[in-house]
Request: fold
Amino acid sequence: MRSESEQAAALIRSRIGEQPIDVGLVLGSGLGAIADHIANPTVFSYDELPGFTRPMVGGHAAELVTGTIGTARIAVFKGRVHHYESGSVSSMRVPVETLALLGAGALVITNAAGSTRPEIKPGSLVVIRDHINLTGQNPLIGETDDARFVDLTAAYDPILRERFAKAAAETGRRISEGVYMWRSGPSFETPAEINALRMLGADLVGMSTVPEVIIARRLGLRVLAVSMVTNFAAGLSEGPISHEQTMRAAAASIVPLTRVLVKLFDMWVLERRAG
Reply:
């Protein structure tokens, strides 16, 4: 663990106590309002947490909020730093390490994504079952011990995916699963690129998530990742693609996604505490 991670965890514990966090939640573009549903919140600015970097993109705040959602003790990251902001693929390393030091057993990651498939329409919730990373970037580059050789065969926890589907069904929400392609951004893809990605097996395309997943799996955290489909990707969309469009579409998913997450966290905590 990096020293900044240990310092950040110690600062957080000094204000919230020693009881472990159950689960972490990373909020994607336009989804910060989910944190408004946290009971008994304690708010930390990224500026006060060692090693935390302030996001420099619209739709991402710079706060860590701890509290409860349902019966779960949760740490919510309101904002993530993307690779395209600094060129560093390890920008989320300290936040994820801090979460592990706070005792969490799982990390739930949300993002806004474009669809490469006509049948996956904007407004859909899609659970990521696997990813494709052809960027040549990996947050574990430079590690010196054998723990850097992380097995990603089941990076996206099948049990958590099953629990999310069950929680969604109980709230009346239909979901699907898909493969997410990470692109470095910040420009959107061309129609030719999207056609190539679709032939490679990508159902979704986005500019985040994969580095966080790799870091989390390196730390032994179970991972669930959910995409809010905000638009059709280039060549499938009727009009131009913009970040503002992503923000508007993501905001429309907040209420149904929050209902599903509350159900999920209750299931997760009950099972974890039962043994």
The chain has one domain: 3-274.
